[in-house]
Design a protein that fits this description.
- The chain has 273 residues and is of the alpha+beta class.
- The protein has 2 domains: 151 residues, Four Helix Bundle (Hemerythrin (Met), subunit A) (Up-down Bundle); 94 residues, 2-Layer Sandwich (Nonspecific Lipid-transfer Protein, Chain A), CATH 3.30.1050.10.
- Helices cover 49% and strands 14% of the residues.
- The protein has 11 helices and 7 strands.
- It has a 5-stranded mixed β-sheet with strand order 5-4-3-6-7. The chain has a two-stranded antiparallel ribbon with strand order 1-2.
- A hairpin with a 2-residue loop joins strand 1 and strand 2.
- The chain is globular.
- The two termini are 21 Å apart.
- 36% of the residues are buried.
- The model has no long low-confidence stretch (mean pLDDT 92).
Length: 273
């Protein structure tokens, strides 16, 4: 069923996210722009260039004509499309990429603010599938930008920006994949009851029942088979495939119940492409 996303909330959070990225990158030194991130082949400058490219594409700009045959870390057509934009900006200084970011996101915000709720409810292709809404696409855009902001923060040693609204909106997107994570990625056995408790600036509990297929439910009729507890920001990093060197770099994950299944779940939280 297509996802309905509140237009006002989505536009406000995207605007705040664009602003947070601009503020973060405005203070970077020349050396920091070149630091490697946890994303294969991408520096801090490349991460921002990726955001620029996606927003430029959504503004109707045609993809640049560049050769990416020398690059080998892409795993799917979307990654290849992303890399075309990033490669086109690799000769630019970080400050130039930032200027382009501000210009493109300014245009995008103007366009988004002119849209109605009906526009957000309209059918749209999204990276999560073709039969969705434009609003879902914009929630994915916020999630992508929020994650990339924190890719940059991790690379330059800046603390997380755990703003509750942004965390909640990002978790709303991740929650759509919990059945896939538990049932397909972690392959927890039929009959499993999985509880995920998130801590930090936003305390959230998710419950997933595996019964033929895995699905999020409101409650259990018995104690969970396995439970994990971890900070919400770490959960976002892990589900986004950003392990930053180890599955639990700070020893912050608590496993309850069946420990083997819990560790199996933790090791397979990543679900993004």
């Amino acid at each position: 069923m297509p996802t309905t996303v509140d237009r006002d909330r989505a536009v406000a959070l995207l605007g705040a996210e664009f602003g947070a990225l601009a503020d973060l990158c405005s203070g970077l030194t020349a050396d920091q722009w070149e630091l490697a991130t946890c994303l294969p082949g991408w520096s801090v400058r490349d991460v921002l260039a990726h955001v620029v490219g996606t927003e430029a594409m959504l503004s109707g700009e045609p993809p640049p004509e560049v050769d990416i045959s020398h690059l080998h870390h892409m795993r799917n057509p979307i990654a290849e499309s992303n890399e075309v934009w990033v490669e086109s900006m690799r000769s630019l200084a970080g400050r130039a990429v930032l200027a382009r970011f501000k210009e493109v996101t300014g245009r995008r915000l103007a366009a988004l603010r002119s849209m109605t709720q009906a526009d957000f409810d309209a059918p749209s292709w999204t990276p999560a599938g073709p039969d969705e809404t434009y609003g879902r696409f914009m929630r994915i855009r916020h999630y992508d930008c929020f994650m990339h902001e924190h890719d940059i923060r991790a690379a330059v040693g800046a603390p997380p920006r755990a703003e509750v609204g942004g965390v909640r909106f990002s978790l709303d997107e991740v929650a759509t994949g919990l059945g896939y994570i538990v049932g397909r990625r972690a392959r927890l056995p039929d009959g499993s009851l999985v509880q995920i408790d998130l801590t930090g600036p936003l305390a959230v509990t998710y419950r997933v029942r595996v019964d033929g297929r895995a699905a999020v439910v409101d409650s259990f009729d018995r104690s969970p088979t396995v439970g994990i507890e971890l900070p919400a920001m770490l959960f976002l990093r892990l589900t986004g495939g950003r392990s930053d060197g180890s599955v639990d770099p700070g020893g912050e994950i608590v496993v309850r119940g069946d420990r083997e299944l819990g560790e199996q779940l933790v090791a397979n939280l990543a679900f993004t492409i």
